[in-house]
């Protein structure tokens, strides 16, 4: 079985590019978290649109921020 492994490395100032989307199972869409420090721009909207079109694929993904 082949495993995937990811490493993320970035400068501390890059944190502003991160954002959290919260799943809304009733509406079958992701909501931009009000706790995000960044704002929705064209690139973020592109990601939100993609994830909403594929809601069932992403709704159960779990990531813990530390």
Write up this protein.
The mean pLDDT is 80. The chain has 2 helices and 2 strands, in the order ββαα. With 66 residues, it is α+β, with helices and mostly antiparallel strands. The protein is globular. The chain starts with 20 loop residues before the first strand and ends in an 8-residue tail after the last helix. 24% of the residues lie in helices and 12% in strands. Strands 1-2 form a two-stranded antiparallel sheet.
Low-confidence stretches: none
**Main sheet: strands, sense, barrel:** 2 strands, antiparallel
**Cα gyration radius (Å):** 14 Å
Strand order of the largest sheet: 1-2
Described by the principal axes of the CA atoms, the overall outline is globular
Which keywords apply here?
single chain, 66 residues, 2 helices, alpha+beta, 12% strand, two-stranded antiparallel sheet
Short description:
The protein is α+β, with helices and mostly antiparallel strands.
Provide the fold topology.
Elements: E1 21-24, E2 29-32, H1 42-53, H2 55-58
Antiparallel strand pairs: 1-2
């Amino acid at each position: 079985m082949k495993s995937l492994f990811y490493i993320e490395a970035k400068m501390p100032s890059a944190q502003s590019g991160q954002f959290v989307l919260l799943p809304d199972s009733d509406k079958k869409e992701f909501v931009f978290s009000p706790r995000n420090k960044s704002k929705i721009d064209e690139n973020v909207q592109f990601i939100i649109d993609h994830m909403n079109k594929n809601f069932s694929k992403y709704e159960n993904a779990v990531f813990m921020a530390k």
